[in-house]
## 1
Amino acid sequence: MRSLGVDVGATQLKLALLDGERLVEERQTPTRSEDGGPDAVFERIVDLGRGAGRVDSIGVALPGLFDADGNALLLPNLHGDWTGLPIRRRLEEGLGAPVRLINDGHAFVLAEATLGAGRGADDLVGIVCGTGIGGGLVLRGRLHLGAADRAGEFGHHTVVADGLRCPCGNRGCLELYAGARAIARAAGATSFEETLARARGGESIACGALERAGGLIGLALANVLVFVCPDRVVIGGGVAEAGPILLEPIRAAVAARARVAPLDRIDIVAADLGPSAGAVGAALWSAVAR
Ligand SMILES: [Zn+2]
């Protein structure tokens, strides 16, 4: 059975084609939501998806919230006014087949639990750090969606009381301080990639920006760990590509704060599936739902 997954990221649209649970094709193209807004992005998704040929199921991962009918509620990291747009219907019209939507954090954790660094864990917390910060839970081997499918919004943890105003309506959400754009801004760089290159070269401002972001991700994670006590945490996404420069301050903050959690029994590991995880998860989700 061939299942197609597309992950709508803030910077890239990623495609994964699975035959059963085997990845047979992956591709990506820039999202460029700043160029043409939603209409142009719909067109790019449809072009990408149609290139995969005949498939048995289609899943699309979205970087934010949507309702049970597939209408957009909050997609803060895409340019243009998406609120209320009938995303599922537009995609089904364009692709000529049923489409299952999934939150990108849920898609990430489902993929890592099934095929990646989360395999074998009973209770898994997934965090995906890119332009936005998403997350998800797999509990007793099952994706935990929560009421209205809203579980796992890791990026909207409050980490700074009375901090910056977030598009979600809260103040001080993690994503505003530890998302890729925020880290670049704190480092005085034009992109996250430039920040990372400068940090790897030992520049202290860039190192400090990554350390501060890691510390805040760790703070939020410590709150989850004392409450959920999973046996594994998988951290992925473009920001996590920084590797130890980010993971070390995360681990240090967790060790300092999650004092009552059995940290010797909770592994915190890097994701395995790379940038395709969200697309793979969307494909898996479409196949499960069939
Ligand atoms: Zn928020």
## 2
Amino acid sequence: MSEAATPPGSVPGTVFPPGFDPVAESVEKTLCFRGFWAWAVLILLIALGISLFMWLLRKCIQGPAYRKANRIDGKVVIVTGCNTGIGKETVLELAKRGARVYMACRDPGRCEAARLDIMDRSRNQQLFNRTLDLGSLQSVRNFVERFKAEESRLDILINNAGIMACPRTLTADGYEQQFGVNHLGHFLLTNLLLDRLKHSSPSRIVVVSSAAHLFGRINREDLMSEKNYGKFFGAYSQSKLANILFTLKLSNILKGTGVTVNCCHPGVVRTELNRHFAGPGWMKSVLQTGSLYFFKTPKAGAQTSLRLALDPQLESSTGGYYSDCMRWPLVPWARNMQTADWLWRESEKLVGLPPLEPPPPGQSPTQNGNGTQNGNGSASASATANPASREMQSVETVVVNRS
Ligand SMILES: NC(=O)c1ccc[n+]([C@@H]2O[C@H](COP(=O)([O-])OP(=O)(O)OC[C@H]3O[C@@H](n4cnc5c(N)ncnc54)[C@H](OP(=O)(O)O)[C@@H]3O)[C@@H](O)[C@H]2O)c1
């Protein structure tokens, strides 16, 4: 019987298990990372994986951008609340594409600073600083009067301005601030500009709403949140739901005119909208830091409004709710046309417009849904909140042309 040969380098007499090749094993050991290097490579791979994941997540958070290069040279646009945030980015992009933009802001100083900055970056001189305080119906009327004296056409109206979760205060006309600014001010503005939009058709209205509408309900018994005021889940959400119901009703009214109206949720965007946030200092710092990564930039937040304002493919699309540049279905309470009809009639009375449609049977033209004369019950609103006198006043002084 012959003995198995001892491999070179091994201790003579060592017994190896069957199939074990000590030569191959020693070569493998020299190639393999061990100790520090093995850990370094492992940590590097994990870091790369996490970075890739964070980059992809950030891209998802920012959402899609409107990438078509179509220009709108000479088209007349109004953007409300555009001295900062989403509105400012919207104007910047429209200006780069050649639009004549009326920047409708409540603070002329802040508006001018934004206008100069945008003119510088877009090389477009056709930007105009105009004062509009949506919390004052008179200011809305003054803005419209001046605009109509200056321009005979209006191609795009973007109702962007908004206020969120402020302490309960009243507008100049005595209405709850968030409902007054986010809904009523824009309601009057849009109605007073409809003749210009129709004259310039095909034209577009873009309403910046919010996903907060999901928490909202139109509180017919307490529209001005007098009995119960919830800053965010109450008043803000109600006002953003009102934006959507207004869009649906208006899209029905405007059928066949060539004027489209769509609304959108811009995403969760890092802007000044949370200026009324009243949490403790540490929570503000955590939020601010987290928002750098987890919130959209204002530029990303403007993309859905831009698509609705610009995309030739949407020229005849109307009555839609969009987010991340895509159309989304609405929850049942945001497409309830009975509520939309009621809100429209109520808003007409609150802003002093003559009714577009006859009131439903059993309700007098001056009654609101509660059977009372006005929904706010505020003494400061008395001059403008009496629906009958407002109607007379508005017909005489504003001359509403809804033809
Ligand atoms: N940011 C978000 O995460 C988010 C999410 C969903 C929906 N939205 C909606 O997006 C829109 C734009 O908000 P943003 O995030 O860009 O907020 P922002 O940075 O606070 O900008 C809001 C703009 O509205 C103006 N504004 C406020 N009250 C006004 C009034 N009474 N009259 C005229 N203008 C007034 C502000 O002017 P001042 O600077 O003078 O106050 C400002 O220019 C709002 O409608 C908001 O509800 C935002």
